[in-house]
Design a protein that fits this description.
single chain, binds S-adenosylmethionine, 8 strands, alpha/beta, about 30% helix, globular, about 30% strand, Rossmann fold
């Protein structure tokens, strides 16, 4: 299911968030352990769990989410954690950031949530704000997961490569299990890419 903005606002208000277990995802923790610190962007940051983890680990962090409610929660969680994050309410398809700003972009479930017609614009837009050789870490549901109307798009390796390979070198696409807090566990991919 692809949620519209109104539904997202309601879900954040009600804290009905099947994707949010309050912990940074494992692939991000592994990435941070192996990487240099830089300016990082979290696209579709939700309540800011991954962004706060990045800030606590020495990254200079900006975030963007289309949901005002999500950003309100993220600001309050950031204050509680005592970290300094640049919070923006906005659309990932048209971001208020300068060209070549970021060395790392984290995407924990944003791309697979967008309508297929906006994928090309999304890829161009994240590439625009990334420095050459910057890294992009993306988590999505995989086509190995059986069809389920409650889930967003399920992506094949082929589709991922087709969408991103114009602007990115795909470094890996790894099968993962996505823990669903409400709908159970699902097959997914963790993808690491480098901007060309
Ligand atoms: C599956 S949730 C993941 C949230 C967060 N990354 C996490 O792991 O908890 C997807 C997020 O993308 C945001 N989103 C969806 N479309 C967006 C858009 N066009 N621009 C910015 N954010 C968007 C939603 O509001 C939602 O917070």
């Amino acid at each position: 299911m692809i949620y519209d903005k109104e539904t997202l606002e309601r879900m954040y208000k009600e804290r009905n968030l099947p994707w949010d277990d309050g912990k940074p995802r494992g692939q991000l923790v592994d990435y941070v352990n192996e990487s240099n610190r830089c300016r990082a962007l979290d696209v579709g940051c939700g309540t800011g769990t991954d962004a706060i983890f990045l800030a606590q680990n020495g990254f200079s962090v900006s975030v963007i989410d289309i949901s005002e409610e999500a950003i309100k929660i993220a600001i309050s969680k950031g204050q509680e954690a005592g970290v300094n994050i640049d919070f923006k309410v906005g659309d990932v398809l048209n971001m208020p950031f300068e060209d070549e700003t970021f060395g790392f972009v984290n995407d924990n479930g944003c791309f697979h949530q967008l309508s297929k017609s906006s994928w090309e614009v999304f890829v161009k837009e994240i590439a625009r704000v990334m420095r050459p050789k910057a890294r992009y870490l993306m988590k999505c549901f995989s086509d190995k997961e059986p069809p389920n109307p409650k889930l967003p798009h399920r992506l094949s390796e082929e589709t991922i490569r087709k969408c991103f390979s114009g602007k990115f070198n795909v470094l890996h696409i790894r099968p993962i299990v996505i823990d669903g807090r409400i709908h159970g566990d699902h097959k997914g991919y963790s993808c690491l890419m480098e901007k060309k």
